[in-house]
Amino acid sequence: MTIISQVKSELLRRNQEYIEKVDSYDFWNNHIKFVVDEALKLASVYGADKEIVELGALLHDIALVSNVGTKADHHTQGAKIAEEILTNLKYQQDKKERVVNCVLHHRSSKNAENIEELCVCDADILAHFDNIPNAFMVGVKKHNFSKPEQFKAWLQKDFDDLSDKTKETFKDKYENIMQVLFGEN
């Protein structure tokens, strides 16, 4: 069993526990699988270490899935949980540190210190655009959005948070999404 399959198995176990005991929200199917997919695409484009990127993407929201801490501190709590999981799986120390830093710095591409972290940061944002119905549901349930302008501002902030390189490659798709959702050019 590979490290990726072991981590994914642990994530899916925690995800199912969250669904059954905390809330019906399915982190895997609504968000994380999209992050992993986008992160691997970006890793290919940017020449990043795919194993580090995939593990970082799998673990980026592990604190939320584990119901530890708050949304505001889920990156720091998640880094601790990721380190614990990877230590228990006897993952190489140097690689473990790189994955933990992907989790720690995933909140904004401005925090990314290397290309792997950048891939996870940008993928976390791109995943919102891959699953617009979920983004709207989160906006209503978690952020109490009730007006289209609130969603529009949220999506614009997400786009603005992308790294310059990813923003440039995603720009046309972003503009198409905004046109469909809000009638914008």
Walk me through the structure.
The protein is mainly α and 185 residues long. It has ten helices and no strands. The chain has helices at residues 3-21, 27-46, 50-59, 62-65, 74-88, 93-104, 115-130, 132-143, 148-161, 164-182. The protein is globular and about 50 Å long.
Main β-sheet, in a few words? none
Q: Compute the gyration radius: what is it?
A: 16 Å
How does the overall form come out from the CA principal axes? Answer: globular
The average pLDDT value, as a whole number, equals: 95
State the domain count.
Answer: 1
Strand content: under 5%
Helix amount, in percent?
Answer: over 70%
How far from one another are the termini? Answer: 48 Å
Work out the helix count.
Answer: 10
The fourth-level CATH homologous superfamily is Hypothetical protein af1432
- CATH topology call: Hypothetical protein af1432
